[in-house]
Amino acid sequence: MAIFDLHHPWIFVFGILGNIISIFVFLAPVPTFRRIYKEKSTMGFQSVPYVVALFSSMLWMYYAFIKKNAILLVSINSFGCVVETIYISIFLLYASKEARRQTVKLLVSLIGGLYTLIFLVTLFPLNGALRVQVVGWICVAVAVAVFAAPLSIVFQVVRTKSVEFLPFTLSFFLTLSAIMWFCYGLLQKDMCIALPNVLGFFLGMIQMLLYGLYRKVKPAAELDKKVPEHVVNIVVLGNSEQIHPVKSEKNEDMIKKLDEEENRESSVISPPVPALLPVANHHENEERAGGELAQVNLQPQPQYETPVLVVCAAA
Fold first, then answer.
1. Is 16 buried (19+), middle (13-18) or exposed (0-12) by CB count in 10 A?
2. How many angstroms separate the CA atoms of 154 and 308, rounded?
3. Furthest-apart CA atoms within the chain: distance in Å
4. Alpha-carbon distances of 157 from 29, 38, 154, rounded to whole Å
5. Low-confidence winner among 86-90, 195-199, 245-249, 289-293 (lowest mean pLDDT)
6. Where does the chain cross the membrane (predicted)?
7. What pTM value is reported for the model?
8. What is the residue extent of each domain of the chain?
9. Cα 139 to chain center, whole Å?
């Protein structure tokens, strides 16, 4: 069946729309990698979503090649392979030694190991329609796993009642992409393309529904910014047995008052003996020299947001 056959114009329409929308989904992590490039650090982000997306795109390209007359599948997944390769390259450039080692290990196991195994097992022993079916259902299994990955985000939103890590735009485009590719697969009578996108559609609808329910809940990061800074100032005089918490704006006054009280008590109780005056002065200087001011800042330190990256299987 020719993809540009005028008897099936809707296949072409849904395929083109699916390509356009999936491009936006593939480009969604661009701000994340701009931030990585600017900070010269991966900042705790993980490479797993990008390696899995590359693996998925390569599988769908293989399926499209053996299926034939699926140029729109080839186009979008070739774009996905290029984009994900760029993402992984940037990640490897700025990742720590441990993160780089784990990424290389994942690449070798998924791309060099599993993908090569699937390719060899299906290319030589199988042929014709049987090969297409086997590769197609393998793609279905991978696509379901990719679409099911964001379920952890759904549980996090329900638990925290916050959409801080659930961008509406990405959920919207994922839902549109699933609709277009479902229609494309349905019109082609290809269940390997249609079925995974049923799950993608329902997942996208759930995400947008949760966003509508919890969108007015302020994110945790914003609440932290509004918490006033609470500073406890501790005056340590002489040894560690005399500790006096005081307000930050009255540190100097309090220290002076404490010094005056000590001097007054020492003058009343035991007048200084002239012979021991240098020793007393020396002891007093040590006490004053030992006085130090420690500020304990109870405000929580800023932390990077937990990376939440959703991968789209464009098929």
1. middle
2. 11
3. 116
4. 20, 29, 5
5. 289-293
6. 6-27, 48-65, 71-94, 106-128, 134-158, 165-187, 193-214
7. 0.66
8. 11-218+309-313
9. 25
One-letter amino acid of 64: A
Asked if the model's pLDDT at residue 253 lies above 50, the reply is yes
Cα radius of gyration rounded to whole Å, the chain: 32
Copy the structure tokens of residue 81. 């392979």
User: What is the DSSP annotation of 9-46?
Assistant: HHHHHHHHHHHHHHHHHHTTTHHHHHHHHHHTS-TT--
Contacts 24+ apart (CB under 8 A), 129-136: 131/66, 132/63, 132/66, 132/67, 133/192, 135/59, 135/62, 135/63, 135/66, 136/63, 136/67, 136/190, 136/192
For residue 204, give Cα distances in angstroms to 23, 171, 289. 17, 5, 65
Strands ordered across the beta sheet of 243-246: 243-246, 231-236, 292-297
Secondary structure class of 243 (helix, strand, coil): strand
Q: pLDDT for 12-30, tens place per residue? A: 999 999 999 999 999 988 9
At residue 272, the pLDDT reads 47
Check: CB of residue 170 under 8 Å from CB of residue 157.
no
Residues listed for the chain: 315
